[in-house]
Amino acid sequence: MITIIDYNAGNIRSVQRACAEVGVQAIVTSDPAAVAGADKIIFPGVGAAPSAMAYLEKTGLDNALKNAFKSGIPILGICLGAQIMLENSEEGSQKCLGLVAGKTVRFSLKDKLLKIPHMGWNEVTVVQPHPLLDVIKAGDEFYFVHSYYPQPADKKNVYAVSGYGGDFCCALGNRNLFAMQFHPEKSGQLGLRILERFARWDGNAAIN
């Protein structure tokens, strides 16, 4: 069973419904003990890094996530859940979870025709193979809604990029953690296939 973390960051139920569409049972919880005992964790979210981190720290979910990562439990971050996996965010100069070295930065766009937030369908290009991204081929698009994006310190943690006034990291990973800036739950059949693959991912390099 997959555990979806509820930390008042929105978009939780749509992720749960997407899991159900691919036959995967998922529970929603804000209980750190339930997170600690999870088989797999999805950490979604839409919102702001400062308020999200404040809630995680108040409830102890921050330490539950860190301990789950150390224990090798497969974790999938989505959107805000991807951004706060890094060490800090430019949004409020916020210290984050630090599960991946690097920071989350705001778009700085020279093209005045491009608006922030970046919203809509955009092509995703895989730059490093990963079991969860095996379904993606050239030209495939996914749905984005964001003003900030993850910027890992080491390119070895970057698995896919997209373009908006220049390339930016849209999928990152570190051991049993994988995270994406786009929304698989809002990206049609391709997104659902990524969630289905996560349900079978052992946290290493294999899909069971």
Instruction: Enumerate the spans where pLDDT stays under 50 for 5 or more consecutive residues.
Output: none
Rounded mean pLDDT is 95
Please name the CATH topology.
Answer: Rossmann fold
List the strand order in the largest sheet: 2-1-3-4-14-13-12-9
In whole angstroms, the N-to-C terminal distance is 15 Å
Write up this protein.
The chain is an alpha/beta fold. The protein has a single domain (2-200), classed as Rossmann fold (3-Layer(aba) Sandwich), CATH 3.40.50.880. 26% of the residues lie in helices and 32% in strands. It is built from 6 helices and 14 strands. The strands form 3 sheets. It has an 8-stranded mixed sheet. It has a 4-stranded mixed sheet with strand order 6-5-7-11, with helices on one face. Strands 8-10 form a two-stranded antiparallel ribbon. A hairpin with a 4-residue loop joins strand 5 and strand 6. It is globular and about 45 Å long. The two termini are 15 Å apart. The model has no long low-confidence stretch (mean pLDDT 95).
Could you give the topology of this structure?
Layout: E1 2-5, H1 12-21, E2 26-29, H2 32-36, E3 40-43, H3 49-59, H4 61-71, E4 75-78, H5 80-83, E5 86-89, E6 94-95, E7 100-106, E8 118-123, E9 125-126, E10 141-146, E11 148-152, E12 158-163, E13 167-174, E14 177-180, H6 188-200
Parallel strand pairs: 1-2, 1-3, 3-4, 4-14, 5-7
Antiparallel strand pairs: 5-6, 7-11, 8-10, 9-12, 12-13, 13-14
